[in-house]
Amino acid sequence: MDSQLEQLRAASLAEIAAAGDEGAVETVRVKYLGRSGSISGLSEAMKTVSKEDKPRLGKLLNETRNAVTAALDERKTALAAAADALAFADVDVTLPGTAPQLGSLHPITQLQDRAIQIFRRMGFALADGPDIEDEWHCFDALNTPADHPARNEQDTFYLPDGRLLRTHTSTVQIRTMEKAAPPVRIIAPGAAYRRDEIDATHLAQFTQMEGLYVDEGVSVADLKGTLEFFFRELFGSDAKFRFRPHFFPFTEPSFEVDIKAGAFGGGERWLEIAGCGMVDPAVFEQVNGRRRDTAYDPEKYTGFAFGFGLDRLAMIMSGVPDIRAFTDNDQRFLAQF
Ligand code: DAH
User: For residues 152 and 146, what is the distance between their CA atoms, to the nearest angstrom?
Assistant: First the structure.
């Protein structure tokens, strides 16, 4: 039995060393250590050996079993390590990794942030108001009479309860003056809604920025200076502007601001970019009525207001021909900003 054990040990260790994969290692294990394997067979035979041989042979059998078990484990580990090494053989771990694709702020958000920064430098504070408004804040307080076309069903989204989606951010002028006495100097960026047919230059929801400055002695010169500073910061100091007389119910006099398209390689054309004017005293009176005081005394205070579309500005600045590109959510478009 001694020699049998020796032989088994030598043979099994040789077979383990020769096993080329995990499956082959397992075959060798079953062959020697499995329930009907050779070493298990010898354990059975131990029952029949003489008393004096038993301790020695028992010890030898144990040593053999341990040696084979250890060799099997070692071989398995070595094979796994070799497989890992092979899998990574073609990988150069010193190469730079593939950077994950990062998103960016939406182009309208980027422009809005820039605009806010510029006005902040001139002392304008951020203000806001609700998107769902009442007719008074959207129209009456802004001196827009009941028969004005802007109040028409066809231009405004009305809710069943008579409220509406604000058609402009000018509502925030009123909400600001209701809460705070002059002086006020605010900008209000936000969404506006109109029942326009959606096409290359119209969306049912777009983004505006409103401004209001009320104090003693505010003049048209302040209005011009403020807007020209703002647009020059945005378009460059060479940009050419003109203030064209216009009509808005809530300002008197009112103007539209045009910019020479040359500022963005567009030649001699004038492009309309904003509406503005001196706050109509009738607006102050509406606010006073609500406030139940005379904080906005038109004899004492004057103010200017302005409003422009951020989508339209972004289109002009970046040469985007179709406003719908801003809401299509096409990565190929958005990733360019
Ligand atoms: N609310 C106007 C619009 O939506 C824009 C505007 C014009 C705002 C003149 C003003 C302003 O504050 O004074 O077209």
Answer: 9
Phi, psi for residue 52 in degrees, rounded to 5: -75, -25
Domain 107-334: CATH superfamily, name plus number:
Bira Bifunctional Protein; Domain 2 (3.30.930.10)
pLDDT of residue 120: 98
Ligand 1: residues whose CB is within 6 Å?
168, 170, 210, 248, 251, 275-277, 305-307
Question: Of the residues 168, 218, 283, which should be mutated to test ligand 1's pocket, given the most ligand atoms within 8 Å of the CB?
Answer: 168
Contact 1, 45 (CB under 8 A): yes
- Tell me which of 137, 174, 176, 250 to substitute to probe ligand 1's pocket, judged by most ligand atoms within 8 Å of the beta carbon: 250
CA–centroid distance for 290 within its chain: 39
Summarize pLDDT for 17-45 with one digit per residue, the tens. Answer: 888 888 888 898 888 888 888 888 877 88
- Segments of 117-175 assigned E as strands: 125-126, 132-133, 164-165
Q: Note the pTM of the prediction, 2 decimals.
A: 0.74
CA dihedral for 151, 153, 159, 162, sign (positive or negative) = positive
Q: Where are the domains of the chain?
A: 2-87, 107-334
Specify whether the CB–CB gap between 215 and 301 falls below 8 A: yes
